[in-house]
Amino acid sequence: MPSERPMRADARRNYDRLLAAAAAVVAEQGAEASLEEIARRAGVGSATLHRHFPSRRRLLEAVFRDKVETLCAAATDLAGAPDPEQALVSWLGAVAAHAVSNRGLAASLMVGSDDGDPLVGATCHTMIVEAGQGLLARARQARAVRSDVSIVELLTLVHAISLAAERQPDGAALADRLLTLVLDGVRPRPEGPPR
What we know:
This protein is mainly alpha-helical. About 70% of the residues lie in helices and about 0% in strands.
């Protein structure tokens, strides 16, 4: 958020509407989405958009962080699920869906900011890694995932899948199919002679 002081209720509504509109427009048009279109969809003027987000980068950072916080909350919710394998698979599916809808957003934030702020993309990556580590540990403990698989490897695969799927007409379905294929490869192999 732009500042630490509390927002008035109407300012909070505008902020939330801008975030929601920006997420939708970025999903459709990519990280270079029109700021005017975002303001129009949020039902506010350009001045209101710029009051909350003085630059395109600030708006994109807020959208990205909001999505990442949602993914981290989902990991927390899934941490107590009865089936550790399904919890990990569900969460990785949510990460893939998030990545497909980003349309270049993460890559645009990995470049340093003009004002010397820390890289939001890198900070969010750390948040995602930490959120997924617990789910992976539970899946390993349940022997649902090979012991030599790391969360960074899984997230790298999810990222590659999202890059392949994000510009396809049925990107979400393709990402889901590719993720299913990949996850079959990280399950433990049965004991016995090689096939």
